[in-house]
Amino acid sequence: MNAIVARDTYKVFGRRPERGVARLRDGATREDLRKDGLTAAVIDASFDVREGEIFVVMGLSGSGKSTLIRMVNGLLEPTAGELRVYGDDVVTMNKQQLRVMRREKVSMVFQHFALFPHRTVGQNAAAGLRVQGIPKHECETRAKEALRLVGLKGWEDSLPGQLSGGMRQRVGLARALAAGTNIMLMDEAFSALDPLIKREMQDQLVDLQHKLGKTILFITHDLNEAMRLGDRIAMMKDGRIVQIGTAEQILNQPADDYVSQFVQDVDRTRVLTAGSVMVPPVAIVGSDHGPDVAQQVMRQHRMSRVFVVDRDQTLRGAVDEERVAAAVRDGARTLDGIVDDRVLSVSPDARLSELLPMSAASPEALAVVDGGRHLMGAIARVTVLKALAQCSGTAEADHGTTSRISVPARTEAMAR
């Protein structure tokens, strides 16, 4: 389900802005309108924000990103186009309807904290609730829970001036959480923080989003922040959205030279994931097969070690050629007792930067598994090196084609 939908949305400032929209649709540029005293802040913007995702709008100063977020919560009225929040048309809402939307559906976290200096942390966190007329006891309860979620339990009676910048921003975040809205708008929320605190706040935001399932529209000019936070990213330039995609799509498939130049200095090891660089399987062995089959598979593919999986692709471990050969000599009929369950494994969301030390410490391939320990892929040391050297989003297979020994071909490779 889409929480926010924008279709062909424009915002032009100045006299008779509708004429500016018509001119833009006929091919006029921002500069053409500027000569006539009109400012085209947002031009023909179309995007969807899915429920429960972090959608980042990224752009330089003047790109239109802050204007865009202010149209979403009704602080600015679009000049033309469609803008909906959970299906309700923001463009046609009156003042009362906008107040209800902000109270029940959309909350906002500001760049410069926007705290009341003479009110306590608890009172600041509950400020939005008191405006709604919610009983004092419920306000306090919800504010305390929100402060606990952002790591400020015990600070309820302190004043903002007693807090660090990062802690004050946590109060702003708690205030938005206490409001109980499904959608949170964050306009350059962390840009005023120093780098270390900024990273802590980014980590906390991702953690909270995973726990609470909030829909977050996040505005930033910091590309690394966008890449780190965004499930998807909209890149803006001169009022237009020039590309929407995941961090990896924008990094590896830039839509134009502007995006390409923008991403050229990004630390790709912090963007590329295990899921994007894992290789397809050469071979695996089913846990119900015997050592003779395992030996045959390893000889056929010239492998010294192979993953062992159940029929549902659950990873059981790996076997190596020495143990398999000994089991064959002993006449063993199963792999019992020779499967090594100490296989290094990572989630598909793990960043390449996390894989580097693991890959360097072990000559064996890393297993990529989901939460249920189902084998999704494998990453050999050569695959990590290839990803670093080529800066590619999805590594190609290092070896041949899949061997269909016991489970479907979607199971990933154990490298040589």
UniProtKB/TrEMBL annotation:
InterPro entries reported for this sequence: AAA+_ATPase, ABC_osmolyte_uptake_ATP-bind, ABC_transporter-like_ATP-bd, ABC_transporter-like_CS, CBS_dom, CBS_dom_sf, Gly-betaine_transp_ATP-bd, P-loop_NTPase
| Residue stretches making up the ABC transporter domain | 22-263
Sequence similarity = Belongs to the ABC transporter superfamily.
Species classification: Bacteria, Bacillati, Actinomycetota, Actinomycetes, Geodermatophilales
Protein name as annotated = Glycine betaine/proline transport system ATP-binding protein
Sorted UniProt keywords: Amino-acid transport, ATP-binding, CBS domain, Nucleotide-binding, Transport
**Record's CDD domains?**
ABC_Pro_Gly_Betaine (cd03294)
From the Swiss-Prot or TrEMBL record, what is one GO molecular function term?
A: ATP hydrolysis activity
Q: Where is the CBS domain?
A: 278-335
Q: Name one GO biological process term.
A: amino acid transport
Question: For the region Disordered, what residue ranges are annotated?
Answer: 396-416
- Which SUPFAM superfamilies does the record cross-reference, listed alphabetically? CBS-domain pair (SSF54631), P-loop containing nucleoside triphosphate hydrolases (SSF52540)
Q: Which GO terms describe its cellular component?
A: membrane
NCBIfam families the record matches: proV
One of its Pfam families is ABC_tran
